[in-house]
Write a structure and sequence with these properties.
The chain is mainly α and 470 residues long. Helix content is 48%, strand content 10%. The strands form 5 sheets. A 3-stranded parallel beta sheet has the order 1-2-3. A 3-stranded antiparallel beta sheet has the order 4-5-8. Strands 6-7 form a two-stranded antiparallel sheet. The longest helix is centred in the last third of the chain and has 16 residues, at 388-403. The protein starts with 6 loop residues before the first strand and ends with a helix.
């Protein structure tokens, strides 16, 4: 009999953008499931109605879409399943694994305050735990889980190892509030069970929650999922990631022009390793990713490593796919879209644009000669490069270019012959040519620009520059 398929889930709260830490959690779950031909599910934990917004949900879905993390099945709303959560709470109550607690909030608060002043444990032990139903008043109540008072709860965690928590350190957590609404801790367990989640991979800030949630699994007789609590991400200074460290939301990284493949690669390496491999493809990541490779220590965000990996992914990327992603970047950054004509020329020139570009803004900067229209505006350095002598050389060069075969080899040969005839070296001609073709002095190779622009456009720009008055 074959083993049950791996099922992972990503369960964000829609209270804001998709945080970079949440994106990495989603990626780890996605890689683990996809590498084992399992299922990766998405659940929106929107039970906090005061803070959950449709806009935040849309931002999360958009962030996952940009990262390329596709999920299986429909997006599950936790709030929509409240009746199911309440049903389980009532079932636990009926089987004696939970009880009604009538202690008012004021009484609990007073107990905790007194315990705090006296240096005692503030863990509230309800007097209603073993009370006979005959003694129950006609008053509001919550439903609490009966947590064992003695012994230990052991979490066998794939990342943190064996974690032991004394049961007398755990309270009888509330399952249903007095208004009948379920709490998050109950909802998570019921949803994970009903969705068939086999592996819970999440931040280690949920480690203590696991001990409390295991009580529900045990009381219901449900199999426990495999737990893997991953360390949080810190800033380069080793402190908890915050706005002072730079971009926090995945949407910001898209607006900065990083390619999604580079982000996936970098986030996978952020707290997980496979030997000394730094650069790898999605296929390799899916094949290699396992829980044993996750580090216990918090990972540190390193923008230089991110840029380096993004540069490698741009260089190795499919030209048409890169152009499609550039469209997405321009839209996300609220920049003007490319015309179809510019896209066609960009596609032709991608080979010389993507090398050593670490982001799409850098690539587009190199593509300035494509994006500029004739007559090309000259920056200050380009104007200086086009002095009267240089313009005179361009005037003589134009007839030579009219008849030469428009291949790299022939263009290089023609330029070398022309430079020799002028008693100079090609390097002296290259500066004015760069200025003429791009309006700048720092550009891709002159020959690349001429080939990408084509004979007609390249000669037109050289003629216009030669005739210009600087």
């Amino acid at each position: 009999m074959s083993a049950a398929p791996v099922v992972t889930r990503f369960a964000p709260s829609p209270t804001g953008y998709l945080h970079i830490g949440g994106a990495r959690t989603a990626l780890f779950n996605w890689l683990y499931a996809r590498g084992r031909r399992g299922h990766f599910l998405l659940r929106i934990e929107d039970t906090d109605r005061a803070r959950s917004t449709p806009e935040a949900t849309a931002a999360i879905l958009s962030g996952l879409d940009w990262l390329g993390l596709d999920h299986d099945g429909d997006v599950i709303s936790q709030f929509d399943r409240a009746h199911r959560h309440a049903e389980i709470a009532q079932q636990l109550l009926a089987q004696g694994a939970a009880y009604k607690c009538f202690a008012p909030q004021e009484e609990i608060a007073a107990f905790r305050e007194k315990a705090k002043q006296e240096g005692r444990s503030t863990l509230f032990q309800s007097p209603w735990r073993d009370a006979s139903p005959d003694t129950h008043p006609d008053a509001p109540f919550v439903i609490r889980l009966k947590t064992p008072r003695d012994g230990e709860t052991v979490i066998e965690d794939e990342v943190q190892g064996r974690v032991t928590i004394r049961n007398d350190q755990l309270d009888d957590m509330i399952l249903l509030r007095s208004d009948g609404t379920p709490v998050y801790m109950l909802a998570v367990v019921v949803d994970d069970h009903d969705m068939g989640v086999t592996h819970v991979i999440r931040g280690d800030d949920h480690l203590n929650n696991a001990a409390r949630q295991m009580g529900i699994y045990t009381a219901m007789g449900w199999p426990l999922p495999v737990y893997a609590h991953i360390p949080l991400i810190h800033g380069p200074d080793g402190k908890k990631l915050s706005k002072r460290h730079g971009a926090l939301g995945v949407d910001e990284y898209q607006k900065l022009g990083y390619p999604a493949a580079g982000m996936r690669n970098y986030l996978a390496r952020l707290g997980w390793s496979h030997g000394d491999d730094e650069f790898f493809t999605d296929a390799q990541a899916k094949e290699w990713f396992d829980l044993s490779g996750i580090n216990k220590a918090p990972a540190r965000l390193d923008f230089k490593k991110l840029e380096n990996l993004c540069g490698q992914h741009i260089a190795a990327g499919d030209d048409a796919a890169l152009l499609h992603e550039i469209d997405g970047y321009l839209a996300a950054a609220a920049l003007p879209a490319l015309t179809q004509a510019k896209k066609d020329t960009m596609l032709r020139g991608m080979y010389c644009l993507k090398e050593r570009s670490k982001s799409f803004p850098e690539l587009l900067e190199k593509a300035h000669f494509i994006l500029a229209d004739s007559p090309v505006d000259m920056d200050e350095k380009a104007q200086k490069a086009l002095d009267p002598v240089s313009r005179g050389i361009l005037v003589k060069l134009t007839p030579q270019l009219q008849s030469v075969s428009w291949t790299r080899e022939d263009l290089e040969g023609a330029m070398a012959e022309f430079a020799q005839a002028q008693g100079t070296k090609f390097g002296k001609i290259a500066g004015p040519l760069r200025a003429a073709l791009a309006g700048r002095t720092v550009t891709p190779s002159v020959f690349d620009m001429m080939l990408v622009l084509g004979r007609e456009e390249a000669i037109l720009r050289i003629e216009q520059a030669a005739a210009s008055e600087t």
